Amino acid sequence: MLNNLITKEDALLAASVREGCQNSFSVVYDKYAPALLGIINKIVDDQQLAEDVLTQTFVNAWDQRKFCSASYTSLLNWLINLARKTAFGIVKLKKQKNQVNPIDVYESVKNNTTHNLGENENNIAFDLVYYKGLNCIEAATLLNISVDELKTRIRMTIKLLKENKVAC
After folding, report:
1. Residue 147: which region, alpha, beta or left (left: phi > 0; alpha: psi -120 to 50)?
2. Which of 51, 66, 114, 168 has its CA 20 to 30 A from that of 38?
3. φ and ψ at 162, to 5 degrees?
4. Rounded Cα distance, 92 and 26, in Å
5. Closest C-alpha among 41, 7, 33, 80 to residue 25
6. What's the whole-number average pLDDT of the chain?
7. Of 86, 26, 75, which is closest to residue 50 (Cα–Cα)?
8. What is the pLDDT of residue 137?
9. Is 120 helix (H, G, I), strand (E, B) or coil?
10. How many C-beta atoms surround the C-beta of residue 136 within 10 A?
11. What single-letter DSSP state applies at residue 117?
């Protein structure tokens, strides 16, 4: 099933990027930067910062290009993981500087949940963990549910996303 997600074009791009071809890397940027920026925007909530994170993501991707392997995961998934890691690292630094309260994060997510895929609580659980970087214990505590219930809600949201092929 995983191989169905990896296109031949991505496999060739990944191999070319791994070899250090700057033209292929430029194609990767043009192809995936808009999608990555959308994901990053949900994590950092600041357009300028999101653009900076996107730039840093591609710097990190170039630095880590030897790990770019389309046989393991799709090129887009690899980039998404790098973007999320970069964004969460920056958010974590900002939180340490500003000491953001997790309850404020919860209220922000609750008020700004944009996708409509069923029960709002499921979406909030997903957003808290996937986009805001809270760990499962923090998110479950904020929602006043068990960690198992939180994970169930996240799985239900992911299932709905897959079924509806909705981009968050």
Report:
1. alpha
2. 66
3. -65, -45
4. 29
5. 33
6. 78
7. 86
8. 83
9. helix
10. 16
11. S
